[in-house]
Amino acid sequence: MDLISLFQQSPLLLVVVLFVVGLIVGSFLNVVILRYPPVLEYDWKKDYAEFTETPFDQSKPPGLVFARSHCPKCKEQLSAWHNIPVISYLILRGRCHFCQNRISIRYPLIELFSGLLAALAAFYYGFSWQLLSVLMLIWFLLVITWIDIDTYLIPDQLSLSLLWLGLFCSLFDLTISPAQAITGALVGYLSLWLVFQLFKLLTGKEGMGYGDFKLLAAGGAWIGAEALIGVLMVASVTGLLLTLLLAAFGLGQKKIPFGPYLSVGILVAYFTDGSLLDLLLL
């Protein structure tokens, strides 16, 4: 029996395997989330220096693939077993093996989110091309979410890649039709752009960033225009509730990234097959 037949005949095995794969990918996503913003900043500064013909001597930050992981506090290089998803965090009791400084809980959480969402996708879609496509959506949104939380920026390289990937998948009936994907991308971008312009006109302030427009456009390319209403409702309600909760504990902040809430809404809309708005209005 080949592997494909085995997965088709044993959905539970596929779910378990995808959970493990998701944990492993989540470990790599942690690297991307941590290292990609400095890499982008380095490239921006280097391009600016070349354009303005000014000296540039900043050291290049570690890359995403080949640079070995190290403790951000003591800078000691980590061994392979220190990077086992979730398990190494539990064995080390949340502390660095070398300097005993605390390791952020976000690292195993991102690995768990990646694993659980991958398992959920396997449960919903089985062994199929659609499973592969939704895994790409999940992992892109996880990276976008945490980079936005850290930097209040959504890199165009991520949001636009996700947009084009959604349009590409629509050509093969993996998500929605090409016409629905194109319309969804247009509506996604223009809806938030109009809200941004109206808010700026009334208050003189910018209420959100252009990265949010592009992220919602990318979401529209995956789920279509109609589902975006539900996405915005979920994003707005979850954003408001979390803001109130943080304020109640004295953890309020002036700047609130909207990308994480949009990402949640897009994933919920995708997994509910575009019927999110119907569920919200029940």
UniProtKB/TrEMBL annotation:
Name the reaction it catalyses: Typically cleaves a -Gly-|-Phe- bond to release an N-terminal, basic peptide of 5-8 residues from type IV prepilin, and then N-methylates the new N-terminal amino group, the methyl donor being S-adenosyl-L-methionine
This enzyme's EC code(s): 2.1.1.-, 3.4.23.43
Question: Does the keyword Magnesium feature in the UniProt annotation?
Answer: no
Q: Which UniProt keywords apply?
A: Cell inner membrane, Cell membrane, Hydrolase, Membrane, Methyltransferase, Multifunctional enzyme, Protease, Transferase, Transmembrane, Transmembrane helix
Q: Which residues form a coiled coil?
A: none
Signal peptide (residue range): none
What topology does it adopt in the membrane?
Answer: Multi-pass membrane protein
**In this protein, which residues make up the domain named Prepilin peptidase A24 N-terminal?**
20-123
Query: Principal localization?
Result: membrane
What is this protein's function per UniProt?
Plays an essential role in type IV pili and type II pseudopili formation by proteolytically removing the leader sequence from substrate proteins and subsequently monomethylating the alpha-amino group of the newly exposed N-terminal phenylalanine.
Q: Which named protein is this? A: Prepilin leader peptidase/N-methyltransferase
Q: Which organism is it from?
A: Marinicella sediminis
Classification from the root reads:
Bacteria, Pseudomonadati, Pseudomonadota, Gammaproteobacteria, Lysobacterales
